[in-house]
């Protein structure tokens, strides 16, 4: 499994996931740079994502929704704050109210840094989400963020091997 370690720190308000993929850095980067590939791994199995907008550039916006097995849609967005491909990118990740991707003020927003380094033809990834306060981090932990993120990231190896 690609995910090697997961930690959360309520004092620092962070959720950190480490993973290692059996692919070079450029191949892992391509997963995030291509919305059709990203749709195949962003979300736990059974909750496929659809990226309606995908602009992986500084100031860009990525709007997407996940669809539950029952057909319910969960809307979210990324506001890209920095890009240094293929070494990584930063973005704010938030929940949206509906298909207009209006931010949901009742849900947490996290600042994220995804970084990738190559080692012996493999890629090591570090995913760090930082929340405004302890309550926001605890809310996403209670929603299953660790389990869902781990399941989603673990799908990347199969995609990059194909």
From TrEMBL:
Signal peptide limits: none
The record's section on InterPro entries has: ASHA1/2-like_C, START-like_dom_sf
Give a single Pfam family match: AHSA1
Where does the Activator of Hsp90 ATPase homologue 1/2-like C-terminal domain lie? 22-160
Q: Which family does it belong to?
A: Belongs to the AHA1 family.
Protein name stated in the entry:
SRPBCC domain-containing protein
Origin species, per record, is Nocardioides hwasunensis
Starting at the broadest rank, the lineage of the source organism is: Bacteria, Bacillati, Actinomycetota, Actinomycetes, Propionibacteriales
């Amino acid at each position: 499994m690609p995910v090697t370690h997961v930690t959360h720190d309520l004092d620092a308000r962070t959720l950190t996931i480490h993973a290692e993929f059996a692919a070079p850095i450029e191949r892992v980067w391509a997963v995030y740079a291509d919305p059709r590939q990203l749709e195949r791994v962003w979300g736990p199995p059974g909750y496929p994502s659809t990226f309606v907008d995908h602009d992986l550039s500084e100031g860009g916006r990525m709007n997407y929704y996940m669809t539950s097995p029952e057909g319910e849609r969960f809307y979210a967005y990324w506001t890209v704050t920095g890009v240094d491909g293929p070494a990584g990118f930063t973005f704010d990740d938030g929940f949206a109210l509906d298909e207009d991707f209006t931010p949901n003020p009742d849900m947490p927003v996290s600042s994220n840094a995804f970084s990738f380094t190559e080692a012996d033809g493999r890629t090591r990834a570090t995913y760090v989400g930082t929340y405004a306060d302890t309550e926001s981090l605890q809310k996403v932990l209670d929603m299953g963020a660790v389990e869902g993120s781990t399941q989603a990231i673990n799908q990347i190896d199969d995609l990059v091997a194909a």
